[in-house]
Amino acid sequence: MSHLKDDSGAKLGMWLFLFTELLLFGGLFLLYSAYLSRYPHDFSSAGRQLNVVFGTINTVVLLTSSLFVAMAVTAVQRGEPRRTLWLLGGTILCAAIFMAIKYVEWSTKILHGIYPNSPHLAAGPPGESVFFSLYFMTTGIHGLHVLIGATLLAWVGAKVKRGAVHSGDYILLENGALYWHLVDLIWIFIFPLYYLIL
Amino acid sequence: MTTVQPTQPSFWNDTGRSGLAAWIFSTDHKRIGLLYFYSTFGFFLVGVLLGLLLRIELMAPGRTIMGPQTYNALFTVHGVVMIFLFIIPGFQGSFGNLVMPIQIGARDVAFPRLNLFSWWLYIMGAVIILASLFTGGGPPDTGWTFYVPFSSRTGTNVSLAVFGVFVVGFSSILTGLNFITTIHRLRAEGMTWGRLPLFVWSLYATAWVQILATPILAITLVLVMAERLLGTGLFDPGRGGDPVMYQHLFWIYSHPAVYIMILPGMGVISDVIPVFSRKPIFGYKMIAFSSIAIAAFGSLVWGHHMFTSGMSDTAILVFSFLTFIVAIPSAIKVFNWVSTLYKGSISLDAPMLFALSFILLFSIGGLSGLILGAAATDVHVHDTHFVVGHFHYVIFGGAGFAFFAAMHYWLPKFYGRRYAEKPAIVAWALMFVGFNVMYFTMQVLGMKGMPRRYYDYLPEFATLNLVATVGSWILAAGLIVMLVNLFRGLFRGEPFTGNPWGGATLEWTTATPPPTENFEEEPVVTHGPYDFRGTGIP
Ligand code: HEM
Ligand SMILES: [Cu+2]
Hints:
The complex is a heterodimer. Chain A is mainly α. Chain A is 83% helix and 0% strand. In chain A, 39% of the residues are buried. Chain B starts with 20 loop residues before the first helix and ends in a 43-residue tail after the last strand. In chain B, 56% of the residues are buried. Chain A binds chain B through residues 1-3, 6, 8-10, 12-13, 16-17, 19-21, 23-28, 30-31, 34-35, 38-39, 42, 116-117, 121-122, 125-130, 133-134, 136-137, 141, and chain B through 105-107, 110-111, 114, 173, 176-178, 180-181, 184-186, 188, 211-212, 214-216, 218-220, 222-223, 226, 230-234, 239-242, 245, 248-249, 252, 519, 522-523. Bound molecules: protoporphyrin IX containing FE (HEM) and copper (II) ion. Residues 47-48, 51-52, 54-55, 75-76, 78-79, 82-83, 86-87, 143-144, 388, 392, 395-396, 400, 452-453, 472, 475 of chain B line the site of protoporphyrin IX containing FE.
């Protein structure tokens, strides 16, 4: 019973929230595994239509961004606001690159007539249609999380700039970074499942 | 334990803002608790009205007051309102917020602003659900379960309703993580885990279920929306999908969700029974532990809703077995409550009457649940009125009656005034009789083969249906008496001060109504929650 700021409490709350986010994607991974066991051949022929190069670059981009945001936390702990801001800027830049690549990837697929409910998929084997519907849903919701995460970090960055987040009180940045690591982590599941193992 | 004379203003008076803004922007857990109470209880009354209309339609065979489409819409909206707008947010939101921080000796929850945000999300979700009734293709007609393929094809406004439920679910997740953090971080000095009131234990278990199960519902609802708006076909057999996958995802949430509904109610009962038996609770540890056990095992039994949907025999066997396992912790609680009564000095005040009837009604509901959990018997009564009777026994006779117990037990504490005892008992008696007349008859009807979700039935079911409808009127009469008596009492009744029930938990040591910061000074806990020595009542 105190009015003191409870940073461990805030972090506990954030961890619980991240857990719910993992479970949200868990539902999609559950569908993936059920349909993979039903349509192994369709899934592998569909998976090979995804562009591994794009996927790999995006993985590297996100891992780099995670590194940046971790360094930003260290920088703010050491009382270096300028450095923190640069590193946060780097993270957000990576997010933008990720989304740009995703955009190119999605639009080439759509140009080839591959999107939910497309006549092209309807004419093909059922497993491929399921695969691509799952692909668009999963990467779409993940992309939404990238946008939310980047906005969150930009908001924290503004606070760093105003001096509201500093070496004495940086729980917001720590929690923002945790969220960003989650976004990264989920991609680390998506990448092999959709691009590599099939 | 003497009662403190208030030197700080009570939470009713102390505020910078005025009027409505002092409430809907307040971060005080007690004000938020009352906001939740009035909004969820308001939806309960709406749901009751719809339920009564359903019963009137079923009073006689053939069309009585509405056609099939209206009936479909009404039972859907009745279910959605009762489940997503009343019972799931209701307990945590109202009594969890009102009582839990005080019971652990905290000034507020861990994240007061997030708490207010949860309520706003809940209201936004509710408004969206209400909007879905009057826009687009009209009120959804799928049942509260939104089963595909019907929910992805029907022309009614399913997308918006589902989105509303999604928003309410988000609110539920935030409340859950707020409560877990609060219980971990903000317990007063001396408030060890072994001294937590059992109501807090049950809220703790509930909060875990909320954050573990609700995300699955969220993604399932998103997929239904995608099915309708983008045509993803993930549940459409014509395009490689599988509707049974929807049912799995839905019940992975919705079975655990029944524990979100019932666990807080069990917590109330565990707090009320010892107080009105003047005896420490029997088996404190087992009751606390069984809440956790229910939360854990409850997440493994969802398949019992799908015995007739197409599953392997092995899966049916396993789910059936696990369903029987999960009945054990509930039974442990019932035995412990009954043992607490044994040789107690029982006083039959209104909260106690509701608590006692909870034990009976919940046991009937639980036992009929075993008939549904055994695959062999389930195939005969699946989707009949037996099921409707069963879950009303559990969520209405159980959680609902526990909610009424909590209203009579705790609301006077926050208003400083109380209801009259005699009318409260009359109301309880009417509701108890009406309840059993209605729902027991419905279970019998189900055994005889009357299906659920039909506005019409064969003539041989006519007499029993009439009986059930009359039961619903007795129940409604009791409800009206209760409402009038309770709310008149809270605003104009006798003063309620001190510790008239003789409770030993922390909320009875602070002023009535409590001050904004709950306690004059930080409490130090020196005894367990059911140690009645020193409460001044023999
Ligand atoms: C006076 C009170 C109530 C009455 C008269 C009533 C009546 C009914 C009736 C007749 C049905 C069955 C419709 C059918 O299958 O043909 C029904 C369904 C249902 N009721 Fe109630 N009920 C009441 C209270 C409650 C409460 C308190 C809850 C939950 C907290 C609840 C939850 C449900 C649900 C979830 C369904 C299933 C809807 C569906 O099939 O989609 N009811 N109710
Ligand atoms: Cu169940």
